[in-house]
Specification:
It contains 3 helices and 5 strands; from the N terminus they run βααββββα. By secondary structure, the protein is α+β, with helices and mostly antiparallel strands. It has a single domain (about 5-100), classed as RelE-like (YaeB-like fold), CATH 3.30.2310.20. A 5-stranded mixed beta sheet has the order 1-5-4-3-2. Helix 1 (about 10-25) runs antiparallel to helix 2. It starts with a strand and ends with a helix.
Length: about 100
């Protein structure tokens, strides 16, 4: 089974979002992290199921069920690279420069 690797900016935004939710309501941040963890396990099981949102770089998107977030990732031969844990109501392509910056 493939490894899941988070780019540092994706890891940072995931933690930042969890902290935001935890401040809103005790336990909600943990619930957010649990949703992300479950999503990565689902993605890992069948990486090619989720729709491509960027055909040039083959970036796919998985939408979380409870939170307005999507996980953007790229399937590699031996790993899945998480590009962003993005809020669905913010700038849609802010993550594009991560592909160039991190040379994935």
């Amino acid at each position: 089974m493939k490894k899941i690797l988070f780019l540092e900016p994706a890891k940072f935004e995931m933690i930042e979002s969890a902290e935001f939710y935890e401040q809103k309501s005790k336990g909600l941040g943990k619930s957010f992290l649990s949703s992300v963890r479950k999503a990565t396990q689902i993605i890992k099981r069948d990486t090619l199921v989720w729709p491509i949102v960027d055909f040039e770089d083959q970036i796919r998107r998985y939408i979380l069920k409870r939170f307005p977030y999507a996980i953007l990732y790229r399937d590699e031969i031996d790993k899945v690279i998480i590009i962003a844990v993005m809020h669905m109501h913010r700038e849609p392509y802010y993550w594009k420069n991560r592909i160039i910056t991190h040379k994935i």
